[in-house]
What does this fold into?
Amino acid sequence: MSNSTSSWQTPTVDLQVLPLDAGAHQGQGTSWTLMTFPPSLQGHPGLVYLDLLGEARYADDREAVEHVSPHVLGAAASADRSLQLIREARKKQGGKQ
It folds into this structure.
């Protein structure tokens, strides 16, 4: 994250934005969250949370996590760039920095 402070920043969360100009990607079509875990849980593939119409699903199998992780995260902006994009969007909407 950035050196600036914000009430939502935490050392255990990286927020990455996937800009619209990134084009088509394998994460399209639903809202999802990828969660990875600390080294103490070595061997756990992580978790993909899918927010679907009328339901939510959690996928914790390696195949699901590996499907999202490299393809979508590779297209996403870095955590620092994502913070900058969020601030720019808030500024355009008249929000506080």
User: Anything to note?
Assistant: The radius of gyration is 15 Å. The beta strands are 31-35, 47-52, 55-59.
